[in-house]
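Each record in this resource describes a single protein on a pair of labelled lines. An example record follows, reproduced without changes.
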Amino acid sequence: MTASATSATTGRRPASAVAGPADLRRATRWLVALLMPVGPAAVALLRYNLPYLTTSDSKEAVAAVYADQGAESLVLWLGLVAVLTLLPGVYAVIRLTHRRSPRLSAAAVLLLVPGYLALAYLLSADVLVWTAAKAGVPQAQAVAMYGTAHPTSNIAAVVFVLGHVLGTVLLGIALWRTRQIPRPVAIALAVSQPLHFVAAVIVGSPTLDLFAWGLTTVGMTAAAVAVVRTPDDDWDLPPVTAGRPAV
């Protein structure tokens, strides 16, 4: 009995006609490509609109938030966007570089993933001060609360600074070595976060900080273009139907 006759009598489709799992590789590439510039752009705007400087003491920082609660609210919104989009961007870049530069890519991941995860922890201090200001808590009390940090906050700060600064340097070098993006753009990405450190910690310049994170955004945008241009088979393995061997 032929397969078509069997199909007609049993009402079942031949095995070859059964639809396999959907191939989402192209959709995945486009999705992460769209997210890649969003995270660093959000941080660039966050750093520019932050009502206090990184080097401000507790009293100065709280006073600045109390004086401009709207700016602090914008910072928190931008922080949420960054937390939700920075890691997908790292995932996408690493998929571009890990086959041609596995050691650099692995080192970048080990730094950037915990670094970006720590950002959410650090934002909790800004949530605390904004909430105190919104609730009408006396400013002196808010200063005492803001300045009384749990030791884990200091650890998170170190993880964040070392992770995202050194990790971005390694990411830029990996993109430079693998030629996934133009080399001048890869260099700009590699120097962007050391420049951010200078702007935030040494100089105290929100404008320079905006420029530094803007360089990161440009680098991630170029990498996003490379992701879109990557063939599906170079991006990931094709899906396989459960219970069937790959062919």
